[in-house]
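Reminder to self: tokens first, then the designed residues, so the page reads top to bottom the way the pipeline ran.
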């Protein structure tokens, strides 16, 4: 006897479980000066601005277009990530590289951690973002293996977001701006499948 009828009965009584598709684009800006956000966002004020982080909730098509424009118009590096997960699941997406820093092996790269729930017509996304990179004194040449290397953390951010249907989030962090970087942006699109 097959147990498939039991799942059909469960789905009929409780409905199918929600499945979420989360797309994340992390953009690390290079060079001095901040991106022209005022023009790119048509003068919109951020929904939230705290501790050097600004957040906007934008229609999904605008989030996608903004990511493309930032990559084309700015000197930057970007990393895209996508995951599909169920309600209440805690998932981590990591793009890390092992490097030697002062004789010890450490991980450098980007990590996104999400827990997601459906809340009425919106998606509640609890998230953590970390971005780090290897830094040397070699700006125009390959680093010498004997040269000192350090790990630079560009972003550590924890956020709980309520994203309305058909919208996405744009986060811009300027906390770790320096001579080689003018901040980090994160674009998030979340959909219920």
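Designed residues (193 positions):
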């Amino acid at each position: 006897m097959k147990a498939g009828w039991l799942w059909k009965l469960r789905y009929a009584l409780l409905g199918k479980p929600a499945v979420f598709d989360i797309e994340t684009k992390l953009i690390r800006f290079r060079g001095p000066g901040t991106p022209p956000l005022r023009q790119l966002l048509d003068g919109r004020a951020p929904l939230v601005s705290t501790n050097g982080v600004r957040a906007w909730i934008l229609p999904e098509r605008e989030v996608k277009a903004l990511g493309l424009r930032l990559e084309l118009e700015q000197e930057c590096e970007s990393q895209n990530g996508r995951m599909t997960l169920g309600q209440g699941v805690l998932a981590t997406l990591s793009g890390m590289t092992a490097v030697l820093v002062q004789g010890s092996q450490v991980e450098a790269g980007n990590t996104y951690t999400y827990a997601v729930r459906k809340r009425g017509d919106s998606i509640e996304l609890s998230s953590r973002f970390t971005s780090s990179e290897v830094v040397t004194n070699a700006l125009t040449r390959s680093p010498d293996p004997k040269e000192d290397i350090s790990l630079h953390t560009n972003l550590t951010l924890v956020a709980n977001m309520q994203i309305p249907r058909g919208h996405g989030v744009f986060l811009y962090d300027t906390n770790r701006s320096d001579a080689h970087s003018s901040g980090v942006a994160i674009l998030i699109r979340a959909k219920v499948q």
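The first helix runs from residue 4 to 14.
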